[in-house]
């Protein structure tokens, strides 16, 4: 098991993960199954180097910019994207310096989106610490996010034109996903299909590029790189959807936030959309639709009732099946890859994500 992991049931707060570079990765109760000691050592080396380079890459001549840019870096996090870069690079040569830079590009891009998301969501807390927008104002948070995008682009340029092109296309998908989420489904659109499309654009795209970057800059063969990218896209969607379920199904703060936060804020995640689309006529399903159709569930007693109904609903079971189907599709995408420790680790991640929601 990799050192410094964040397990379900542990919050992702400041300083999460040991500081062998301070990294942390998402795992199940038993952790990602990295049975090959060489792969485990390589992964730790890459992620430790990523952590050091992340801190260096956000430095600015302006102390305030440095402080604000390091805010989320220092808060810790899953480092899911750098982990995928490092694992994908195992199919080539993970010792290449480009691998570390590629992982930093992916994490900087991800962090930049978090600064912007917190402004749009009017979030007060991120990773257990005050959000940048609540600490420095919305304008500063947006500009710091832009600064991180710029730093990511600068590092991409060092990797070459193909990296710049891939990062730009990924950024385009991220923006399209955010616009689609903000505008919402058009009249007549299937709300579930719309939501899954948003997840693919906002989350799957960057995780797909992370896996692609790892294979590409590790020097893997082109068919391997393509397989890794397909795996990354699919496991990325599964990962986000499993977070949706944790927000409802976890008894503790397993998801890194108070259970039912999305419900209280009126965020229509997959279980809620399945519940609203259901035509079940039993009393519990009818009552659940009645509560959810009214919008954000902010009143405490009503919130507790809705959470209980959701946890016992066919909608939650269906959402779990959807997560498992994406995890199994991701496993199928690994078929072209050579057998061995790196592939087993990626397969293990499929199990972790499928099982983390019960």
From TrEMBL:
InterPro entries: Isoprenoid_synthase_dom_sf, Polyprenyl_synt, Polyprenyl_synt_CS. It comes from the Bacteria. Residues 1-23 are annotated as: Disordered. Residues 12-21 have a biased composition (Gly residues). Keywords: Magnesium, Metal-binding, Transferase. It holds the Pfam family polyprenyl_synt. Its EC number is 2.5.1.-. One of its GO terms (molecular function) is transferase activity. Signal peptide: none annotated. It is an enzyme of class 2 (transferase). Its cofactor is Mg(2+). Belongs to the FPP/GGPP synthase family. This is Polyprenyl synthetase family protein. It comes from Plantactinospora siamensis. The lineage of its organism: Bacteria, Bacillati, Actinomycetota, Actinomycetes, Micromonosporales.
